[in-house]
Amino acid sequence: MPTSLLSASTVPVGNCKYMKKYLFIFCLLPLISLGQQASMKGAWGLENSFGQTVLLITDQVFSLTQYNFMDKKFISSEGGTWRSEGKDIWLAYDWSSKDTSKVGKEIKVNFAVSSGQLNFGLLDQRLTKLDQGKPGALQGEWIISGNYANGVVSKRPSPFYPRRTMKILTGNHFQWIAFNVKTKEFFGTGGGTYTTSADGKYVETIEFFTKAASSIGKTVEFTYSFKDGDWRHKGQKSTGGPMDECWTPRKFYLKK
Prior knowledge:
Layout lengths: L15 H25 L1 E7 L2 E7 L3 E8 L4 E13 L2 E9 L9 E9 L2 E4 L6 E3 L10 E10 L2 E4 L7 E7 L3 E8 L5 E11 L4 E9 L9 E9 L2 E7 L5 E8 L1 H4 L2
Antiparallel strand pairs: 1-2, 1-8, 2-3, 3-4, 4-5, 5-6, 6-7, 7-8, 9-10, 9-11, 9-17, 11-12, 12-13, 13-14, 14-15, 15-16, 16-17
């Protein structure tokens, strides 16, 4: 009688050690899949003659952006949410600067992580892990929800739908994206690397920016603090002028 992994009663006593081995492997497979998903999160990149490609993956959001830092040229950005299914992931598009027909659609791609490199189904070349060292204190997914005036916050009535400005931060990389999930409009984006420090300083180095190429290459210092789960983001804009913004964790709006 053939041995079945799911029918232990049919296995002869002399084969118990093999049964245990197969059951161990069978039970380990979901854990391997979860480990792959965890190691997939973060910032990944590659560089070629066209410029830079950066993929950011947080707990629920992905963003794939292409730009040329030396030429201060933005090429494209697209992204949305992701979910896993075995060795595949499903990507649901919320924005695309180059093909709005993708918005609202979901596609399946395969992925594999090995030795600090990521094979991602949308790309022909492998990506290398970019995040280094200790993650910043702002790691996560944020939605701009209001602005401060004289220390008092004024919240927006509808910051999440249909138009939203989202900021995602991995260990060392950040990106903000403004888009409308209903009209499929893409309004702009910017990103690069960041650091946070225990004294409340948040520093961005800008690598791409659709609104002002003159900001690319700049390092801008802000202060950050938290109140009731929100992030207060205060300082001077890279283009000049003060800013005092309130950002709320994206997960807050998923509960509604």
